[in-house]
C-alpha cells in the first residue's frame, strides 16, 4: 500500500525582522547573516501566537470537511510546548473541528519530532487504511536578544495529512535512523531560551548526516544520482549545504548541479522565515515543490531529519502524478508578502513581552493579529484560544 503526504501547508506569523537591520543594530557585517549563515528575514511570533495557534493555523488552510471526518489521530510535534501535561494537539483538535473519536498527542525530540510523528502516522495508516492522520510541527525558536543564536531564531508551523494513496508524495520504507546522547542543543524546563553549542551542533549535524548516508547507501544501494533533490532540516540555510557538500563530489557534475540548485530552491522559504525547528525539514520540501517547476511525477526526494540531543534519519519519497494540484504557491507567497516588518526596537520591545508566569489573568486583543486562530489570554491558568 502506498502511504505518504496527501496534503501539506505552512503558517508563519505576521511579523518579521530584516536580517541586515538586525546585523547593523548588533554592529555585525550584514554579510555574515545573509551570506555566512544564509538568512534574509526572521519570522517573529506576537504574544497572540504559540505552538498551538500556529499549528492550527497551518492545518486550517489544508483541511476540508472530508479530512475533518476521516482524521482520527492528531500528532503535534513541538519543542515549544505550552503545558507539561496536556497535549497541544487536544486544543488543535477542537479549534479545527475534527470528529471526536480521535487520538490527540504531543511528541518531542527537538527538531526531529515531526519525522517521528510521520513514521507513527505511516504505521497507523498501514493498519487503518481508511483513516487519515494530521501531523503538525510547530515551534518558536528563541535564543534571546544579543546572543550568538539570535540570528537563527524564527517561528512557524507545517501541517501534513498522512494517508493511504497520497496525492502529493509517497514515503518509502527505506528509513535509516541513528541516535547518540549528546548535548549540542537543549532547553531545561526552567528556561525560556535554548542552550546551544553552535559549533559543536554543526559538527554533529554533519557527523549524523555522513554516518546515516553511509549506512543508507550500504543498506539500499542508492546513489546521489537517484535523487531529484534532497531536503534538509535547516536551523539556518547554510547548514544543510555544509552537510551536502561533504558527499556531493561522489556524483557526476550534472547531478551535482541539479542537487545544488534544488538545495537552493528548497531553502528559499527558510531564508525568509528562519528556524521553525520541527517543521523546518518539511518547510524545505514545500519550498522545493513551490519553486522548482521542473519537478515531475516519480521524482525521488531525499529527506534528512535531525533533532539535537540527538536523533537523525534519512528516507525518501516519490512524487505522485498530480502533486502540482496540491501545492499552494500563491497562498504562501501572499502569507510571506503580507507580513509587517518590525523595527529592531519594536522587535526588542515585543521580544520582552511575555505571558505572565505567576498564574495571573492576562488579556490579549485578538484584533492585533490577522491570523484566524489566536490566543486571547490566560484565565484561571488556562490558555484561551479562539477561531475568529
Ligand atoms: N561575510 C560573509 N560570511 C561571514 C562573515 C562576513 N562578513 N562573517 C562571518 N561569516 C561566516 C563565517 O565564516 C561562518 O561561515 P562558515 O560556517 O561557513 O565558516 C558563518 O558566517 C558564521 O560565522 P560564525 O563566526 O561561525 O558565527 P557564530 O559564532 O555567530 O555562530 C551559529 C553561528 C549559526 C553557529 C550560531 O548562530 C548558532 O549557534 N545558532 C544556533 C544553531 C542551532 O540552532 N543549532 C541546533 C539545531 S541543529
From TrEMBL:
Membrane-crossing residue ranges in chain numbering: none
Annotated Pfam families: HMG_CoA_synt_C, HMG_CoA_synt_N
Claim: Acyltransferase is one of the keywords in the record: yes
Stretches assigned to coiled coil: none
Binding site for (3S)-3-hydroxy-3-methylglutaryl-CoA: 29, 143, 242, 275
Domain Hydroxymethylglutaryl-coenzyme A synthase C-terminal: 178-247, 264-353
Keywords recorded for this protein, A-Z: Acyltransferase, Transferase
Chain residues that bind substrate: 148
Enzyme nomenclature, EC number: 2.3.3.10
Domain Hydroxymethylglutaryl-coenzyme A synthase N-terminal: 2-165
A Gene Ontology BP annotation from the UniProt entry: acetyl-CoA metabolic process
Any GO MF annotation of the entry: hydroxymethylglutaryl-CoA synthase activity
Residues at the catalytic site: 79, 111, 233
Gene3D superfamilies according to UniProt: 3.40.47.10
InterPro entries to which the protein is assigned, alphabetical: HMG_CoA_synt_C_dom, HMG_CoA_synth_N, HMG_CoA_synthase_prok, Thiolase-like
Protein family membership: Belongs to the thiolase-like superfamily. HMG-CoA synthase family.
Protein name (record): Hydroxymethylglutaryl-CoA synthase
Native source organism of the sequence: Listeria welshimeri serovar 6b (strain ATCC 35897 / DSM 20650 / CCUG 15529 / CIP 8149 / NCTC 11857 / SLCC 5334 / V8)
Organism taxonomic ancestry: Bacteria, Bacillati, Bacillota, Bacilli, Bacillales
Gene: mvaS
Amino acid at each position: 500500500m502506498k502511504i505518504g503526504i496527501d496534503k501539506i501547508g505552512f503558517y508563519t506569523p505576521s511579523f518579521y525582522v530584516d536580517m541586515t537591520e538586525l546585523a547593523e543594530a548588533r554592529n555585525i557585517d550584514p554579510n555574515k547573516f545573509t551570506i555566512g549563515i544564509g538568512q534574509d528575514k526572521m519570522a517573529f511570533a506576537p504574544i497572540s501566537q504559540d505552538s498551538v495557534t500556529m499549528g492550527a493555523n497551518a492545518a486550517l488552510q489544508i483541511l476540508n470537511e472530508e479530512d475533518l471526518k476521516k482524521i482520527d489521530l492528531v500528532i503535534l510535534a513541538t519543542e515549544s510546548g505550552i503545558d507539561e501535561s496536556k497535549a497541544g494537539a487536544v486544543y488543535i483538535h477542537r479549534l479545527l473541528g475534527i470528529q471526536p473519536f480521535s487520538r490527540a498527542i504531543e511528541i518531542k525530540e527537538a527538531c526531529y519530532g515531526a519525522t517521528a510523528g510521520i513514521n507513527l502516522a505511516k504505521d497507523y495508516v498501514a493498519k487503518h487504511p481508511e483513516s487519515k492522520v494530521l501531523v503538525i510541527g510547530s515551534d518558536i525558536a528563541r535564543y534571546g536578544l544579543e546572543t550568538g543564536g539570535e540570528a537563527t531564531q524564527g517561528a512557524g508551523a507545517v501541517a501534513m495529512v498522512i494517508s493511504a494513496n497520497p496525492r502529493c508524495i509517497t514515503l518509502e520504507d527505506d528509513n535509516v535512523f541513528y541516535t547518540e546522547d549528546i548535548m549540542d542543543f537543549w532547553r531545561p524546563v526552567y528556561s525560556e531560551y535554548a542552550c546551544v553549542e553552535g559549533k559543536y551542533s554543526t559538527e554533529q549535524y554533519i557527523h549524523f548526516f555522513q554516518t546515516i548516508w553511509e549506512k543508507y547507501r550500504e543498506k539500499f544501494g542508492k546513489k546521489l544520482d537517484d535523487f531529484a533533490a534532497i531536503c534538509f532540516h535547516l536551523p539556518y540555510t547554510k547548514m544543510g549545504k555544509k552537510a551536502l557538500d561533504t558527499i556531493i563530489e561522489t556524483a557526476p557534475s550534472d547531478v551535482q548541479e541539479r542537487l545544488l540548485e534544488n538545495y537552493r530552491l528548497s531553502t528559499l522559504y527558510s531564508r525568509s522565515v528562519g528556524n521553525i525547528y520541527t517543521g523546518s525539514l518539511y518547510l524545505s520540501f514545500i519550498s522545493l515543490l513551490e519553486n522548482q517547476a521542473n519537478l515531475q511525477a516519480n521524482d525521488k526526494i531525499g529527506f534528512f531529519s535531525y533533532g539535537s540531543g540527538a536523533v537523525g534519519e534519512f528516507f525518501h519519497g516519490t512524487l505522485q502524478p498530480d502533486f502540482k494540484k496540491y501545492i499552494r504557491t500563491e497562498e504562501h507567497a501572499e502569507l510571506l508578502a503580507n507580513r509587517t516588518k518590525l523595527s529592531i526596537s519594536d522587535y526588542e520591545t515585543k521580544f520582552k513581552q511575555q505571558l505572565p508566569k505567576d498564574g495571573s489573568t492576562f488579556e490579549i486583543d485578538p484584533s492585533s493579529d490577522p491570523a484566524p486562530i489566536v490566543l486571547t489570554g490566560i484565565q484561571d491558568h488556562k490558555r484561551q484560544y479562539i477561531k475568529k
